[in-house]
Fold each of these.
Amino acid sequence: MTVKYNVVSYLIGEGFRNVLKNKKSTISAITVMFLCMIIFGVFFILGENINHIMNTVEEAQGVQVYFKVGTKEERMKEVGEQIKNIDGVNNVQFVSKEEGMNELKESYKDNASALEGMSSDFLPDSYRVTLSKLELNEQIQEQITAIVGEDLDEIKSSNETISTIMKIGNGIRIFTFVLLIILILFAVVIISNTIKLTVHARRKEISIMKYVGATNSFIRGPFIVEGILIGLISALIAILIVGFIYNGMIPNLEQSEIVKKLEITFVTFTDMFRLLIAVYLVLGIGIGVIGSSISMRKYLEV
Amino acid sequence: MKEEEPTSGNIIINGKDTTFLKKNRVPYLRRSMGIVFQDFRLLPDKTVYENVAFAMYIVKASPRHIRRQVPMVLSLVGLSGKAKMYPNELSGGEQQRVALARALVNNPSMLIADEPTGNLDPDTAWDIMMLLNEINMRGTTVIVATHAKDIVDRMKKRVIQINKGNIVRDDKKGGYDSEV
């Protein structure tokens, strides 16, 4: 145990020493890194929230199944049960012709008088089917058509809305992903450059270590610790800043008129914070390790 | 050392052919021998003690073992009083002693010295050679590469002469030039 502890403390000690020795380059690396992370964080938060909103919108999207006038009640109940069992269906709600009439009046509001005195008999009974798997939209419609058979009057669905929603969602996912890759590459280059300075300053020491019989991993150790430290510090700063801003912004946004009208909800601060911490720590440590390994390659060939 | 490959033939160390040694085994080969260079190659920002202890860190020796072993080797090379000094505070001869201590601290079976006296004045050079001799007496194989004629002539040890990459002579107790 003491042996292991000895080596580990040596590696970490040397790593810290490197960070403190090159204050200037370390500070500039940390600055650029956490700025990158904040940019990424902003888009990550945007993406997560849009995803979140999309999920709520998706749930509201659905298919309206109209029955022919005069379809028997038992038949409609039976059909309703079957629709509920289709894979990808979230909820099935019966809308009677009276309810349909009320909704119609509601949507006309100011001109409701135009509908006054009209009987609801000309309206069909219907089911409002919401979907949990939007991508199955078309298949589900086909299945419903088969189930209802000749009692079907008409199926209405917001096909275009659904495909637009899916397109936007995918677009945002791809954009965040590409941005993530670019920022990671950027950060790796910055870290590896910073560490290259330390490595270069200590190249004589490294070659001596190699002559005395140090393994590559032993020599690499302190530099990887240095990279991880830079990554971690940047991640912590980024978490604090982004978390602070998000925490301040969300309640204000939720109070705003538009948000209230659209009935949008946001990812809560705690959920988002947990996600961010995980993502940033993985990013910081990963970039640190990769960046420092890259910068070491050249100097280990002795 | 595996720093250079032989143009022909094999390099056999301690009965092991190192010609086709895997890269990741090279450090372990280097640990089995102590090496001293003409230019000392000490770590400038570490003290004498740390420079020697460093070679033990690398082989993952226990702290207790390090605390016991380092002062012992330092006293062997006659530097007990200078453990806390930095290499640039020492004379050339003293620096070479530190390098020797570092090479010896892990008890290698073989010590290779590449022109160990090249940067030293004759008196100091002779002191170092006497030290090497003492180390040899303690049971370590010592190989010295040198072109210091007076030293070779004075030591009267086994001499292997190399000319243009070929061994031309191997005498049990020889001088610098073959007198035949």
Note: The mean pLDDT of chain A is 77.
Amino acid sequence: MPRAVSRRTLLMTSDTFIQIRDIHKSYGGVHALSGVSMDIARGEVHALCGENGAGKSTLIKILSGSVTPDRGDVLVNGAAMRLGDVRASEAAGIAVIHQESVAFGHLSTFDNIYVGREPKKLGGLLLDRAAMRSQTRALLQRLGEADAFDPVRPVSELSVAQRQMVGMARALSQDCRLLVMDEPTASLSERETRVLFNLIRQFRKDGVAVLYVSHRLDEIFELSDRVTVFRDGKHVSTEPIAGMTKEKLIHCMVGRELLATDQETSFSRRVHPARPSDVPLLQLKNLTRAGVFQNVSFEVRAGEIVGMAGLVGAGRSEVARVIFGADPADAGQVFIAGEPLGGNSIDQAMRRGIAMVPEDRQHLGLVLPMSVGTNLTLPILRRLTRFGLTSSKRERQEVEKLIKALGVKAASPAVPAETLSGGNQQKLVIGKWLATRPRVLILDEPTRGVDVGAKAEVHKLIRQLAEEGMATLLISSDLPEVLAMSDRILVMRAGMISGEISREEATQEKVLSLAIPASSSPGAEVAA
Amino acid sequence: MTDASDDTLAAPRRRFLENGFLFWHEFVLVALLAGLLIYAARVEPVFTRTKTQLNLSTHIWELAILALPMTLIIITSGIDLSVGSTMALCAVVLGMSFRAGTPIALACVFAAITGLGCGVLNGIFIACVRVHPLIVTLATLSAYRGLAEGISHGEAISRFPPAFTQISGNLAGLPIPGLLFALFALVTAIALGKTPTGRAIYAMGFNETACRFSGIATNKIKLILYTLAGLAASLTAILFAARRNTANAAVGDGMELDVITAVVLGGTSIFGGRGRVIGTILGVLLIHETREFVSWHWQNDVLIQVVVGVLLILSVLLNTLLTPRGRE
């Protein structure tokens, strides 16, 4: 491909559009970005890679003006941009397109494109809807999508790909100079991805800079001119794609020296691994939920911690929800201690000894305005009830026991759960499920948003439960956590189990290569 | 660790202000009620006599009985606008079947079944079809009333047997509807405060999904509550027919607004999660006394509406000021 090569040589001479200088941002003591610098040039597709939590999304939010960094500068054409101001970012020509990039699902395409800066008539009294409509049509034509959909229909009726088109049309209408795309192809079909790539190339030809965030390495090699890798909020490298290989890129993302320290210190593996007994307490046979995940089969034995890794959206939480009876399965079966689970309700799952600590602790896990005690006993009130009446004495005893066992730090069991820190809230969710005395414990992102100290305590608790014979399914996007905690690791990709790795063979590279979509023709793309 | 110590520091202050005295709203209602009665005793001494009060109390019981299930429903962050219309339909069924020669006891059973059916229908649409309760009961508010008018052709049925009209009379010097209400109020208060279902009702009002994820059969509870509201409406229809010795399609007109006003005035949060039976009882009492006093003193029905409206706004303001913050 001589054209691509010549583009890349041109880049060296082309000028820089945006300079990001020493950006720092921390959330409550956790450093999301610590001193990140990078440049993005006009007419280049600049890929940004890194694991979950590397700081990519924080950088995007800073560029879009929705988050103010603690310090650092962003220079646009050499002049400092006002940070933390969405209007300033828009004025600088920065447009961000998320997976769900359109804000107002119930409004039409043209409403979404012009929201906040609608063309007016009658001296600004009325919206000039006719102008909006015709300009929208012209924009869609420029994107080559004029016939694809009706701009009058509410955006919620459009496909994800079409919604991205709306986002790109909005970007185009704003005369955007930097297009930021966050995982744009996560839910696109192959054909839609092709259309999107052509559009991105067209933007590049018009001199627009594109910052392209993706987990899909093949896409990065196909599309981008340069690639930058972040790890743990730090800039690791920026290189022309020509000098990059897939192995090198994964290595940059994972960081070998980091891996080593992790295992030595905070995530020390269990010294005496529990010996898994022969009874599979939880067993899935070809479990399928149409359009979400297919033919998922695995088993978890008593005393075993099975990790489940995969990218966001691979279907891990969805599998957990079906096991727990929150969603129905379309095919396949769940067995508990060899017997079919039977029925499909949370109540049934609870009776059979399944407990789930859900991913979204604020909405699914806790009733935040209610007290610590109330939250802890919510699933077990029936057990504390005699002749229809709940015994407040027994309830109090149970609550005290749980608070002590879990080390929940609360002024009293009567304070609302929402006043507790994230880590203590998470302990509440785990505690309320331990109170049900489960045999199978599903943990979905149990340490997300939890500070380091509480994280170690949660890990200790999980190990202790496994020693006592709990069958644990640990879903986590935190790779070091999965590696350190699990006896076996299942990896999910696009709704399927893409592989199983034993603890001995498990490395971040192996897990990632199973989690990231496989290339169709790797040789050609690396050469491209 | 730092956040934990923050919790410990922040909690005592919060608790003193917000959890220290849990009956602020009820306290304010009692104060308002006392103020009203003291004023009334000075300007209208006859009004506050026990005999007058007992006579006037015949008007209160239907409102009071309906307010109990409504309290539970509003705590789950639902609403039932159809109670007045359900009353009308039950009253018409009672009257028409009595006029057709059915024994009055059996006619009462028919009325009860009608109320049950109305409630179950609301419950099914809300719990199973998952339509918003406001929409469902707004629709049945008009549908049940229309049905009542259609069946009765606008006629009123009266001349019920004395054995029936005595239901609204006294037993051992106390009004029978009042005794019924006391019984129901006690059962409701215990159910709300002491049973797993009562706990679930509060929790549902804050976060229904988290309840479902805690294994609580939220749909079953909703179905039961709207069914109870329908049953309560049929009982009040029977009490109304007995008290006024008449049954027609206009029974319970506007009742839903009075009931909701009383419940909200009593401190139940319209957003769900908070509310108590004692508050509802005080809310009913305050509305009742205000109404009766205004109509006694000024003999002005328009003014009643205004005063009740002002009371409602006042109570919502109080509620906002007195309930713990932190749930935006």
Note: Chain B touches chain A through 36 residues (CB under 8 Å).
